[in-house]
Amino acid sequence: MSEPTTLTTRGGDLFARLSRIIAERGEDTTPGAVADGPSPDEPGHPEYHHRQRVLSALGRFDAACPPRYTGATTDHPGVLAWADQVAASPTTAPSLLLWGNTGTGKTHAAYAAIRRIALSGPHRFGFIGSTFPDLFAALRPGAGDGLERERRMRRIMTIPLLLLDDLGTASDSVWTEEITYRIVNHRDTHMLPTVFTSNIPPGGLAQVCDDRIASRLLGMTVRYHFDGPDRRTT
Ligand SMILES: Nc1ncnc2c1ncn2[C@@H]1O[C@H](COP(=O)(O)OP(=O)(O)OP(=O)(O)O)[C@@H](O)[C@H]1O
Ligand SMILES: [Mg+2]
């Protein structure tokens, strides 16, 4: 067995010879960055994780969206700006109220806004979309036991994104006002972004809702008027 000193010396010789050969060939041996990080297709790369978040959010959006509106897009500047604000800062963004005559594209724009948020690849995406009449039907006494109804109610109150369509179309009662108040008040006080659509102008809300509800709706939303012909019939 050779002595360790001999091995070191021989290793040193070998290194010197290799260095000489490389130098003679004019090879550039300057140390550079080693590309050993993940590629965009691999876990660990920010693009990979962004893509996964988009896919997950879009899957949830599609599952909660009526087929008519699944691919909805909008070019409404106010609606686009609102969606981008929610995507950038969901805890400080306001809610949104789209109002106007029937068939002018309010519901379409509302789903388009939520879809745009999904496409931004949010870290947390939970969404429920419902009309007010369907909401009341799901929560009315007799629709499941009390605990189950309260569980549904809590889910609607606390979901990160909520779309409530057709405000003011369901017939009024003390019970529907109380349900609406609880939801609107919770969403307002917890600053949870909510989209409302309505045929009723903001100035007329106090005539169709309890004052406490109208006041909160006006305080928590940015509002856009949808005008023009009924797109269903033109
Ligand atoms: N920007 C758009 N591009 C393509 N289709 C649209 C657009 N906006 C609305 N539509 C279509 O027009 C029809 C009416 O739109 P929408 O349902 O959004 O109306 P609305 O204002 O919500 O009406 P209502 O007050 O009766 O609920 C729908 O079939 C919708 O898909
Ligand atoms: Mg609608």
Spell out the CATH superfamily: P-loop containing nucleotide triphosphate hydrolases
CATH class, named: Alpha Beta
* Major beta sheet summary: 5 strands, parallel
CATH arch. level architecture: 3-Layer(aba) Sandwich
Parts with pLDDT < 50 across at least 5 consecutive residues: 1-8
Strand ordering within the main sheet? 2-3-4-1-5
Q: What percent strand?
A: 5-15%
Number of DSSP E strands? 5
- The helix content, as a percent range, equals 40-55%
- SSE pattern, N- to C-terminal: HHHEHEHHEHEHHE
Short note summarizing the structure:
By secondary structure, the protein is an alpha/beta fold.
Name its key features.
single chain, 234 residues, alpha/beta, Rossmann fold, 5-stranded parallel beta sheet, 9 helices, 5 strands, elongated, disordered N terminus, binds adenosine-5'-triphosphate, binds magnesium ion
Secondary structure blueprint with pairings:
Elements: H1 4-25, H2 46-64, H3 77-88, E1 95-100, H4 106-119, E2 127-131, H5 132-139, H6 146-158, E3 161-167, H7 174-189, E4 194-198, H8 205-208, H9 211-220, E5 221-226
Parallel strand pairs: 1-4, 1-5, 2-3, 3-4
Helix pairs in contact: 2-4, 3-4, 6-7, 7-9
Bound molecules: adenosine-5'-triphosphate (ATP) and magnesium ion (MG).
Overview of this protein structure:
It is a single chain. This protein has 234 residues and is α/β, with parallel strands linked by helices. It has one domain: P-loop containing nucleotide triphosphate hydrolases (Rossmann fold, 3-Layer(aba) Sandwich), CATH 3.40.50.300. Helices cover 50% and strands 12% of the residues. The chain contains nine helices and five strands. Strands 2-3-4-1-5 form a five-stranded parallel beta sheet, with helices on both faces. Helix 7 links the parallel strand 3 and strand 4 (194-198). Helix 2 (46-64) packs antiparallel against helix 4. The protein is elongated, with a radius of gyration of 29 Å. The N and C termini lie far apart (96 Å). The model is unreliable at 1-8 (pLDDT under 50). The protein binds adenosine-5'-triphosphate and magnesium ion. Magnesium ion (MG) binds at residues 106-107, 165-166, 197. Adenosine-5'-triphosphate binds next to helix 4.
